[in-house]
Write a structure and sequence with these properties.
The structure holds two protein chains of two kinds. By secondary structure, chain A is mostly helical. Chain A has helices at 3-22, 27-45, 51-79. Helices cover 82% and strands 0% of the residues of chain A. In chain A, α1 (3-22) runs antiparallel to α2 (27-45). An eight-stranded antiparallel β-sheet of chain B has the order 3-4-2-1-7-8-6-5.
Amino acid sequence: MLISQKLAISMAIWTLLMLTLIGGENVELFVIMILIGLLIIRELSSIYIRPSLAVRLDVFVQIGIVFFIGVVMRRILSILELI
Amino acid sequence: MRKRKFLRPEYSSKIIGIVFLTISIYLFLRTDYLNAGLAAAFIGIFTIFIVHIPTVEEDVALAGLKTGILSYHHLLEDLNLSQYGVIVPSHKNLTESRVFVPAGKLESIPDLYDEMSIVSSGKGKVGVSIVPPGEPLLEEAKNKMEYEIEGSDIEGGRECMGYLTQGMGLAKSFSLRKKGKEVKIRITLGRYDDFCEELRKKSTNICTRSGCPICSAYLTGASEAFFVPLKIKNFEKEDNHIKYDLEEI
């Protein structure tokens, strides 16, 4: 089995596990947990994956980080009662 | 055996991805399960973009490997070099590792240079110095390491071989042991066992001279990690288990 296939299966299992645990309530938490899964997989697989695959994984991580920054900004604004 | 086109990972992953994306669209449009829709969309997109093989077909790549090693084999056969090879790491005048195959009984390793292939430095020092067939494979593994393999000893060697085994899938497992001046490498082949057997039928002696590209990558990795020339003392193959006994020179 290819490393990329193992990564895809691991990420699918993680996502379904988070969906089971979080349910349909908190979308922000769910997406952040997916981001955490991505970061774990990226770190653990870093020695085994080729640079081209690492770049592809990094794109997903970067999209997740942008979303995370958005969530944090939204929380800060809501604490400051600006929204 | 060649897989049907749609069973190959790059195609099957796209089919699976599209199925998940279709499920996600249904969940978004027809139900209130937002997180389930997000999960399906993520799995679909992730599968489509991650499982991707921008490379040549496996049989074409193996044919390329075979061509290279058979050329070596014919060259060494024509020169009547039947002695066991010595893997020499890059030191002194060498900027890259070499395999020295002596013509007669090895007395000591002659001075080797990058630009010199035919070595003639006196009695017991005549032979051929060739680039290890597994050097390009080893380079791939070395690029993944965070430190230089040269002189990194057994830990560095094992890390590098770990990438060759798990990262590149060249073998199922390996073991690297060192006791005094003796180094033992055990490789259990997986998908490339057929390739090994086919190659051994055409060039039996290559295993004790330089090794095929797969074994050569492991042997050169060990030589560079211990940073000493390693002479092949013994080679055995049983089923898919390969045993190399080497000796420091």
